[in-house]
UniProtKB/TrEMBL annotation:
Protein name: MFS transporter
Pfam families recorded: MFS_1
Membrane topology type: Multi-pass membrane protein
Matches recorded under InterPro entries: MFS, MFS_dom, MFS_Na/Anion_cotransporter, MFS_trans_sf, Sugar_P_transporter
Domain Major facilitator superfamily (MFS) profile, first and last residues per copy: 13-424
Transmembrane parts of this sequence: 52-71, 78-97, 163-186, 230-251, 271-292, 304-322, 328-347, 359-385, 397-419
Cellular compartment(s): Membrane
Keywords linked to the UniProt accession: Membrane, Transmembrane, Transmembrane helix
């Protein structure tokens, strides 16, 4: 293999991350499309469903805190493998439970397993890409979340109609083991990978003061709490992640209750919403990378892009005035796409500000904060919807929730800017 012309194996690595993230979101979203069926099967109220979502979020938060450190210690290949095995088995376990408590336990196990996906994937991107390409790479693999969300409204109702709700969990859960084969066949860190040449290896490590993985030693995550950059990432995730959880777990129910969407059939409105998020994820990663190529400093490029995306969420406030489903679809699609564009960049700020040996830990801490927000928000959403449902005005409940969504990103951007006005690189 020639060492003069750079190989591009890093994009093969991104494709592996993309498919893992697709499976991750497919598995977590199955329950949202089975909600009407399971409500009848187990006599769930909106608050029961909120508690089940909370069980996932709580376990996800705990798992993120632990998995980030595990991946920094064990490495991305083994750490990702453990995560995927746990979450795939937990996804299949849903088919065997017979009670609401059982669903809560299965969701908790799923949350712990799935918590390893993003700390591992962001660390892989930091290992395989220079900073100027990381947002685009993150946007590409993060778009897998949206593809999983697009696949769910088509795949899950089809399986439900033919085989029943148990098989929906079994089939989607088993897909992860297919991915695992390709992961072990095609992935290794750059210094040990036989498919890249010296030119690509040099390009990957072209950033000033960048650490090759051989020089890394894990950092104790406790010391990261004393750093302002950690708190900027943590608060940004805490304020915005819950909005995405709402889009994932409650949008099917919103369209069903407000516009009488039949969730037992493939749902075009939901496919459109989650397809838009794919465009947002890749486009969001591309925009900040484009700013950098045009000469803008890395941190300024990230902040400028994130501010623009925060503005794009504001129009969701108008969903309360939507008189038909397609108006609501347009407004929610814009907000959901903006979230994924925001997500591609906020994840990349972690690898921008911290050395590679701490990236998984920082992402895990920030992800935990996002999940804590995701625990609180479903409780609030469940209480608001149940209150207005009893009063016969469930649409008004969604109006309040959309107003919260509209403001969250600008607030997060402002807090992050105040904490890290210059977003300096951390030296450990």
């Amino acid at each position: 293999m020639s060492d003069t012309k750079k190989t591009n194996y890093r994009w093969v690595v991104v494709s592996l991350l993309f498919f893992a993230t697709t499976i991750n979101y497919l598995d977590r979203q199955v329950i949202g499309f089975l909600k009407p069926t399971l409500e009848k099967e187990f006599n769930w109220t909106e608050e029961d469903y909120g508690h089940i979502v909370m069980a996932f979020q709580a376990a996800y938060a705990i798992g993120l805190l632990g998995f980030g450190g595990v991946i920094d210690k064990l490495g991305t290949k083994l750490g990702y493998t453990i995560s995927l095995i746990v979450w795939s088995l937990a996804a299949m376990l849903h088919a065997l439970v017979k009670s609401t408590l059982g669903f809560g336990a299965a969701r908790a196990a799923l949350g712990i397993g799935e918590s390893g996906n993003f700390p591992a994937a962001i660390k892989v991107v930091a290992e395989w890409f220079p900073k100027k390409e990381r947002a685009l790479a993150t946007g590409i693999f993060n778009s897998g979340a949206n593809i999983g969300a697009v696949a769910a409204p088509v795949m899950v109702p089809w399986i439900l109609g033919i085989y029943g709700w148990q098989m929906a969990f079994l089939i989607t859960g088993a897909i992860g083991f297919i991915w695992l084969i390709f992961w072990w066949l095609f992935y290794e860190v750059p210094s040990r990978h036989k498919q890249i040449n010296k030119a690509e290896f040099k390009y990957i490590h072209s950033d000033i003061n960048d650490e090759p993985e051989a020089a890394q030693t894990p950092v104790k995550w406790v010391q990261l709490f004393a750093i302002r950059q950690t708190w900027a990432f943590v608060i940004g995730k805490f304020l915005t992640d819950p909005i995405w959880w709402f889009f994932l777990f409650w949008l099917p129910s919103y369209f069903a209750s407000t516009f009488n969407l039949n969730l037992s059939k493939p749902s075009l409105p939901l496919v459109i919403v989650y397809t838009a998020t794919t465009i947002g994820s890749i486009g969001g990663g591309y925009l900040s990378s484009w700013f950098i190529k045009r000469g803008m400093p890395i941190f300024k490029a990230r902040k400028t892009a994130m501010f623009l995306f925060a503005l794009c969420v504001l129009p969701i406030f108008g969903a309360r005035y939507a008189t038909n489903i397609w108006q609501a679809v347009a407004l929610i699609s814009l907000a959901a796409a903006a979230h994924q564009a925001w997500s591609a960049n906020i994840f990349t700020t972690a690898s921008d500000m911290f050395p590679k040996r701490a990236v998984s830990s920082v992402v895990g801490i920030g992800g935990m904060a996002g999940s804590v927000g995701g625990i609180i928000f479903p409780l609030l959403v469940g209480w608001i919807l149940e209150t207005y449902k009893v009063a016969g005005h469930i649409t008004a409940g969604y109006n309040i929730i959309f107003s919260i969504c509209a403001c969250a990103y600008l607030l997060a951007w402002l807090v992050m800017h105040l904490l890290t006005p210059r977003m300096k690189v951390v030296t450990l």
